[in-house]
Amino acid sequence: MKYIIGLIAVLLLVGCAAEEVKQVELPEQEVVKELESNFITEDEVAKHNTYEDCWVAYQGAVYDISDYIRVHPGGASDLQNLCGETSLFEEQFFEQHAMTKVDVLVKEGEYKGVLK
Ligand code: HEM
Predict the structure, then answer these.
(1) Closest ligand 1 atom, CA of 82?
(2) What are phi and psi for residue 111, nearest 5 degrees?
(3) Does ligand 1 have an atom closer than 6 angstroms to the CB of 58?
(4) CATH topology (fold) of 36-115
(5) Quick one: average pLDDT of 85-101?
(6) Atom 10 in ligand 1: residue holding the nearest Cα
(7) Residues 112, 48 contacting (CB under 8 angstroms)
(8) Which of 26, 55, 92, 103 matches a 20 to 30 Å C-alpha distance to 12?
């Protein structure tokens, strides 16, 4: 008897789980498009390599730091040379600062998207 009750419980659970799986819908095409439009390639970042138009990548995200460059306490020249850089920027940033400066980067930089 216990065996039969157990079997019924298992069947019910499996049935509910299957029902839940059915309810999950694939994202709409529009959502997928929007997500893709958020990706930025290294080549795109590399185009923004000047003092006036300076993009960098840090931990997989791309930031426009054109405004921050002017007020950076460590000066503009080090930063300017890294405009348009992805992995090199991250390397230099790590070398020069404690992790707390990441907050400043995220706050002061303008988030552009995800590095592809
Ligand atoms: C957007 C990215 C960056 C942010 C938000 C940032 C932020 C800061 C801040 C808040 C300081 C003040 C000193 C401190 O609190 O430690 C500083 C100093 C400094 N930064 Fe940056 N920094 C960035 C990128 C860089 C890069 C890429 C370099 C070098 C390649 C660099 C080199 C320096 C140097 C040399 C100082 C002076 C350090 C000192 O006087 O102790 N920074 N930075």
Answers:
(1) 27
(2) -65, 130
(3) no
(4) Flavocytochrome B2; Chain A, domain 1 (3.10.120)
(5) 88
(6) 101
(7) no
(8) 26
Helix, coil or strand: residue 112: strand
For the cut 60, the answer to whether the pLDDT of residue 15 exceeds it is: no
- pLDDT for res 24: 62
Predicted pLDDT of residue 77: 92
The pLDDT value recorded for residue 26 is 65
Record the pTM.
Answer: 0.75
Output the CA 74–ligand 1 centroid distance in Å: 5
Between the CA of 108 and the centroid of ligand 1 the distance, in Å, is: 13
Q: Rounded to 5 degrees, what angle do the CA atoms 44, 50, 53 make?
A: 65
Minimum CA distance residue for ligand 1 atom 9: 73
> Which residue in the block uniquely carries the two structure tokens 């529009």?
30
* Pocket of ligand 1 contains residue 53 by CB under 6 Å: no
Query: What residue segments make up the domains of the chain, in order of their start?
Result: 2-34, 36-115
Residue nearest to atom 21 of ligand 1 (CA): 74
